[in-house]
Amino acid sequence: MSGINLFRGDITKLDCQAIVNAANHSLLGGGGVDGAIHRAAGPGLLSECRTLGGCRTGEAKITGGYNLKAEYVIHTVGPVYSGKEDDRIKLASCYNSSLNLAKENNIHTIAFPAISAGVYGYPAEKAAAVAIDTVKKWLENNKDFDIQVTLVAFDEKMYQIYKNYCA
């Protein structure tokens, strides 16, 4: 049965089929969760990412998980927050594109970081609302596919934001 779970901690340590990387356009690593995933996965991830030709905002691409517990990494590029409606649309597209890739690859457990809520400046409360609303809608529209979605908060503040929004 499909559903949404919350987890506070390090996404690279999760035992699930896929983790989502809040990547930059190059897909070649960066700061925050992107850098942590690349470090934990090892050099094979960077080598494979070099073959992908980057990724546009709101889209997603899949690679192997290499040294991670996760078999796959789904890379998505969130919007840099500008306060415009387009930000919400692009952020929702990150979740939808990632979940569609998961379904295409028969992935039934997936974990998402708080996409765009770090250095990209998306206000945490708004990012959480987009994440939860988009995932709920995707699950409703894909009842034929069982998937457990974990929303990962690196810190207690984001965890409480997720928890309060789900309540």
Poorly predicted regions? none
Kindly state the mean pLDDT as a whole number? 97
SS field, number of helical segments: 5
Strand content: 15-25%
- Percent in helix: 25-40%
Q: What does the overall shape look like? A: globular
Strand order of the largest sheet: 1-6-5-2-4-3
Short descriptors:
167 residues; 40% helix
Give a verbal description of the structure.
With 167 residues, the protein is an alpha/beta fold. It has five helices and six strands, in the order E-E-H-H-E-E-H-E-H-E-H. The chain has helices at residues 32-41, 43-49, 85-104, 124-141, 156-166; strands at residues 3-8, 18-22, 60-64, 72-76, 109-112, 148-153. It has a six-stranded mixed sheet, sandwiched between helices. Helix 3 crosses helix 4 and helix 4 (124-141) crosses helix 5. The longest helix is centred in the middle third of the chain and has 20 residues, at 85-104. The mean pLDDT is 97.
Put the structure in a nutshell.
The chain is of the alpha/beta class and 167 residues long.
Topology diagram in text:
Blueprint: E1 3-8, E2 18-22, H1 32-41, H2 43-49, E3 60-64, E4 72-76, H3 85-104, E5 109-112, H4 124-141, E6 148-153, H5 156-166
Parallel strand pairs: 1-6, 2-4, 2-5, 5-6
Antiparallel strand pairs: 3-4
Helix pairs in contact: 3-4, 4-5
